[in-house]
Amino acid sequence: MGAGKSTKSKVVAAENNAVLISEDDWLSAHYPSQIQTFDDYIKHSNLIKPFVKSHVQSLLNVGVNVVMDFPANTVKQRAWFASLCVEVGSEHELLYLDLKDEQCLSQIAKRRVEQPERAMFDTEAVFHHVTQYFEAPTASESLNLVRVG
Predict the structure, then answer these.
(1) SUPFAM superfamilies per the record (predicted)?
(2) Superfamily name with CATH number, domain 5-148
């Protein structure tokens, strides 16, 4: 949270002539005003995953480059991404935005000012709650990992 996933995703999509698929966009389009807590986010994020997976795999199957603006903070989340690609024989890269907590918190504070509609969810308390689940990627996950720091 606050690492710059959305900003980096937009740059990578533009550089690679790729379709950008954002979890935030899908969630706000399908569940407007329904995500008020972290538990709401988890519930609704899990609800869209089957549809996102099918859509992304369809795009990959016809040769379209795809950039996904989704969190991959846990082994389980990264395994979902890897399976999405492996099932259709697609190559992948996972960008690991390796930032200090202070950098993320600074970016979150800035975002609260720029996007006041997110201020209720984008708090230091939510950041610390989310961060407690973070698991750094390891070589055993067999990902094509690109570290960005």
Answers:
(1) P-loop containing nucleoside triphosphate hydrolases
(2) P-loop containing nucleotide triphosphate hydrolases (3.40.50.300)
